Model the fold of this input.
Amino acid sequence: MSSNYYLPPKVEMPILLRRIKFVFQPLKYIEDFARIYGDSFTLPSKDGTNVVYFSQPEAMEKIFTADANSVQAGRGAQILRFLVGDNSVLLLDGDRHMRQRKLLAPPFHGDRMRAYGMTMCEIAQQVSDKWQTGKPFNIRESMQEITLRVILKAVFGLDEGSDLEQLRLLFSSLLDFMSSPLMSASLFFSFLQKDWGNWSPWGKVLHLRQQVDDLVYALIKKRRVQPQENREDILSLMMSARYDDGGSMSDQELHDELMTLLLAGHETTASALTWAFYWVDYLPEVREKLLKELHNLGENPEPAAIAKLPYLTAVCQETLRIYPIVANAVPRIALAPIEICRYQLPKGTWLIPAIYMAHHREEIYPQSNQFKPERFLERQFSPYEFFAFGGGNRRCIGMAFAMYEMKLVLATILKQFEVSRIERNPLKPVRRGLTLAAPGGMKMVATPVKKMVKTPVAV
Done:
């Protein structure tokens, strides 16, 4: 490759202003740069390295299929180290990453995953049963309660009791506190990460995280002392799993992966479900089609039958397309010079797979700003065109689990309630920590669905 490097156009904006816009106007940040500079653009860094955004399918294919010797991904997720620890699969590269991924994957696929179907439906039922007809409630809080209870049940096998309730409350408090504008900013501005005790914002985050850590380690210790045969929860499966050399995971490795699963396994799904209820209410025709499809399954369908419904699946996919929960997939860092879309990029370049930009390419998704589930029924999109869960060897391990949960929660609630927003104005995503989400104060009301009556067939 030539030593004459050729980069996409450089963004002309002072770094501090750029970062402020990135934190407080995350969607406008992407849309403005894409409008001005096109499919790819370069953000120069203080240290002389370049951050390059790509959205073209051919660029995604090159990035997602690059081998571990040419790109590194773990360094791109270092911002999460304080929360998930050094051994998280998110932060590892090479053989260690593949080894850990291989150990974590089985519970999220096949029969093991499907075994959680009834649990997902039951928890969605229990939470929605607490809604009072016509009384406004915070939809995000309800979805977060559902998804956190599901992941705690799946990961720890915890149903009820003080351990479950304590962990649920602590973890919710930690994530809610971190999602505030100030704390979201502190993730990207290191000078805000000052620990002046529990009364200071960053000090409170560290205090809450320590309480969560202590409880997770206590649960690991309890499980080691009192192992039970035939347990199906993910912690038990991880404790009994063995690496190729016969070794097992240490307490610290277990802790770091459990924190990763808790973080990735409920926060993102709660955001996706919140958006799904928003769109189903915003577009009555979507709701009508969903109800007809669900009605055709009969009174008490099996979770597996619900998961196969094509329109329900398309609604979930379109929800994740139009406003993906993370705007970009895990950055890759070039370990050697690399050519992408005819650009010659030097070693050390940060490669950003821009999910939001890719999901709004008009030649792939006509009228991309409109919510149209039908597009997923009309054609199949490649993993380089639609990649809400990331791509390559960094694609989210829990992708099938999250989609399964989205479908079952939506179906369980929509069969019983019409969930409507109080304010009808359209909403745009806002920053919630490292993710994009619906504004946190969105209120909805639930009214019981009138049962459909089967029309008698004339004879």
